[in-house]
Amino acid sequence: MQRDKFFKEIENVRHPNETLVKTHCSYCGMQCGMNLRVNTKTNKIIGVEPRYDWPVTVGKMCPKGVTAYQQTNLDDRILKPLIRDDASLKGTKEGFREATWDEAYDLIVKNFQQLQRDYGKDSLSVYSGVSMTNEKCYLTGKFARVGLQTRYIDYNGRFCMASAAGGFMRSFGVDRGSTLPWTDLHETDCLFIAGSNTAECHPTSMFRVWAVQERGGYLIVADPRETPIARRADVHLDLRPGTDLALANGILNLLIQNGHVDKEFVNNHTNGFEETKELVKEFTPEYTSELTGVAPEKIIRAAEIYGKAPNAIVMFARGIEQQVKGVDNVSGYTNMALVTGKIGRPKAGVATFTGQGNGQGGREHGQKADALPGYRKIANPEHVKAVAKVWGIEPEEMPKEGVSAYEMFGLMEQKVIRGLYLLCSNPAVSAPNLNYVREQLKNLDFMVCSDFYLSESAEFADVILPTTTWSEDEGTVTNLEGRCIKINKAQEPLGESKPDWQIHVELCERLGRGKYFSHLKTAKDVGDEFRLASKGGYADYYGITWDKIEKQDGVFWPCKDENDPGTPHMFLDKKFYHPDGKAKICALPYRPPAEEPDEQYPLRLTTGRVVYHYLSGNQTRRINFLRDMCPEPYVEVHPETAEKYNIKHEEFVRLYTRRGEAEYKVKITEAIRKDTVFVPYHFGDDKSINLLTIGALDPMSRMPEFKACAAQIEKLELKKVQ
Amino acid sequence: MKKRLYLELENCIGCRSCLAACTQCGGHEERNRNYVYDVNPLVNRQTMPLMCLHCVNPACARSCPAQAIQIHETGAVLSALVEKCIGCQNCTIACPYGIPKFDTEQNLMYKCDLCIDRTKDGIPPMCASVCPSNTLQWLTDEEIEAKQKQFNLDNGKWVTSMPYLEGETNVRVNLPGILQGVTKLF
Ligand code: SF4
Ligand code: SF4
Ligand code: SF4
Ligand code: SF4
């Protein structure tokens, strides 16, 4: 149990006729601890009480967390299966009728079997998400590969963590989002944070970030916008969107030139130094400045601080990862830690801010097109054998590798994929190039969507299955530290809703695949099978029992057996996970974003989040407090740019790219680059900024480039009536 | 040990979790009683919370003709008593910080009660419990004194409560600029 200076013993308030259920927030990777207040007469969740005894967040929550409890009993909940008979209404909210589970299952089975008879097993696809427990994520993979026997399964982590995963795999040979626990953050001497709007996206990290500065440590932030965290940074590297790799190479060059190389570490524990040193030579402060738009002095100062810091942590998020070179950006910034040896010890290391609640666990256990539980690879026959054994199938029966989330839409267009089972995701808002994506959803022969609200994506479904919110089921989640924690059940499922794992089991039974699923009667049954399936993989959860989680305040993977306490700090023995035990320093040639500004589209469009909303906003846009705070998207424009276009604060503009357009209210702020405009992406219908974003993918992670494309603005002369 | 609400304005990230949290405590009827302001919204993202400072000699209570605003033994200046408040709104004008809010439907003033259902038992208020940036903290006088030593501004000033902005307050406020006096590690 880690107890640090922020931890205080505090009693909780207990109201009469209430119990408190210990759990964690439903939203981001911080997984803040919280107590749900449950009325003991109605057995309903009625509020939240801080969880002071959770060591990572000590009671703190952002406004999403404070109001998260309201999701469960909201009027918008879907309480019964819904069927729509008239396919011409796809893409609208109209035409759904309530049905029984039996009727819904029968219809799904009939259509799925028909499609597979006519077009083969792979005509079906599963598109999933990671805002759900490890148990559900694990079973979704098995559902696709054993239940539906299709190769096409992928998940929304492609829009979230895939580049971080790819970069860490390449640099370290293992992908654990943070090499150290969050309770180390405030004790380091320098935080280098790139492409993370931490104060809005992972707010409960902020008390630790500020504490570094209070101690006299340094904060360096790389971001095109002066975000609330950048506002207080010692150095704000205000780079052009999509130029991170140049910045990383430029800083690395200075670290090497200025003698900050840890020679012993580099020689004994890494490969690739000489080659990388040669490559980054070209990235002088002046050349780096030319590419990134950051003043040379700032680059020099940042390198000096990071180089001199006794301990430092390099951190990053979607800002650097959602690019066509996201994987390279991750390895590029990770190089800083490897060259200076600031890794593999407490208070020093590398971390990514995991976006979704279970963005870490969910990507490890087989929802990815190319992966199997325990972070195994489908391309590796040994790995397939191990998992096939747990699943009770022959290795030959294991479907081959599929394609990434965005590429699935391409296969829908080609009619290779004709049926879709969608859960825990809302691609009709969150995918890039939405005009195209929505078209493909509309053209599917048959689509099932499991959700607890009628999301924008559910509007394309033929059948909607009512699933539970996070508080109506139990299971484990792996937070952004790599710490596996326990989500507890606070209320019985509302209406006829069921947890996704149960839906999968019941559906598989009706598809004639019951023998592989019928033994899974509780979330714990699924959890136990999942631990076994992960055993021996990189991400080994075998030793992570629910008891141990309770006793230790969570367990960090890898954790191989009952007696293993888990691994809060990675690489303390300086052993990395590549076969030779060494980390890889990567020589990474710079390349620009897929679409650079030109005369027609002179601005750089970048997207991101606001503190009040989570991902596609399907949950948070329905919560009164959060909706009131941010009811609609807007476009942030620098005053000088605004003047050029003759637009004023709160006037309306048409923002457009080669792919689409939308109208937004203008928010003037000096806290953004002059060549860049920003729009938050949480909104649906004709307000989605993803109508404009580009579907260009990172060649390794298949992550779309949400963070940089070319755009143009036009003032709307007519007064808009909202 | 007596604890106080302590505000370190420099830290605020504008998340408004304090507002969301304020709706959560007993008797708050899901309405928040605090404020967060964008300091200079067209220029930067600095924000700051504004809450009742729980004045030792509160102008709001003094201005109340009906003695509807009671002072708790902990020093917390409570929300108007439903049975006493006559809806005159004197308090909303009297408070130098514009804290009391008015419910026109109920003809009733409501304000921050320092989460009295929590703080009477030494449990931190909701806003200070959740504040992700430690802008709002719940500290002992010793801890506040340590803060005072740690952050020495070059103008010799530290908290607004000494000398006070208006009069002595139970809540302590630390104005932006705390990092000025910090000695860098290297
Ligand atoms: S959204 Fe993230 S930071 Fe906010 S309360 Fe939930 S887990 Fe914590
Ligand atoms: S919760 Fe804290 S950081 Fe957030 S707005 Fe309130 S005072 Fe500022
Ligand atoms: S700050 Fe205003 S409302 Fe609070 S006690 Fe003082 S006068 Fe009354
Ligand atoms: S102390 Fe309680 S009542 Fe006062 S602003 Fe904070 S949460 Fe609201």
Automatic annotation (TrEMBL), chain A:
Domain of life: Bacteria
Every 4Fe-4S Mo/W bis-MGD-type domain range: 18-76
GO CC terms: membrane
InterPro entries registered for this protein in UniProt: Asp_de-COase-like_dom_sf, MoPterin_dinucl-bd_dom, Mopterin_OxRdtase, Mopterin_OxRdtase_4Fe-4S_dom, Mopterin_OxRdtase_prok_CS, Prok_molybdopt-oxidoreductase
Leading EC class: oxidoreductase
Needed co-factor(s): Mo-bis(molybdopterin guanine dinucleotide)
Family annotation (Pfam families): Molybdop_Fe4S4, Molybdopterin, Molydop_binding
GO molecular-function terms, A-Z: 4 iron, 4 sulfur cluster binding; metal ion binding; molybdopterin cofactor binding; NADH dehydrogenase activity
The protein's Enzyme Commission number: 1.7.99.4
A GO biological-process term: respiratory electron transport chain
Keywords: 4Fe-4S, Iron, Iron-sulfur, Metal-binding, Oxidoreductase
Keyword Metal-binding found: yes
PANTHER family linked: NADH-QUINONE OXIDOREDUCTASE SUBUNIT G, RESPIRATORY NITRATE REDUCTASE
Protein name: Assimilatory nitrate reductase catalytic subunit
Source organism of this protein record: Neobacillus niacini
UniProtKB/TrEMBL annotation, chain B:
Organism domain of life: Bacteria
Residue ranges of every copy of the 4Fe-4S ferredoxin-type domain listed in the record: 3-33, 39-74, 76-105
Pfam families (UniProt xref): Fer4_11
Keywords of the record: 4Fe-4S, Iron, Iron-sulfur, Metal-binding
TM annotation in the entry: none
InterPro entries assigned: 4Fe4S_Fe-S-bd, 4Fe4S_Fe_S_CS, ET_IronSulfur_Cluster-Binding
Cross-referenced Gene3D superfamilies: 3.30.70.20
PROSITE patterns per record: 4FE4S_FER_1 (PS00198), 4FE4S_FER_2 (PS51379)
GO molecular function: 4 iron, 4 sulfur cluster binding; metal ion binding
The protein's name in its UniProt record: Fe-S-cluster-containing dehydrogenase component
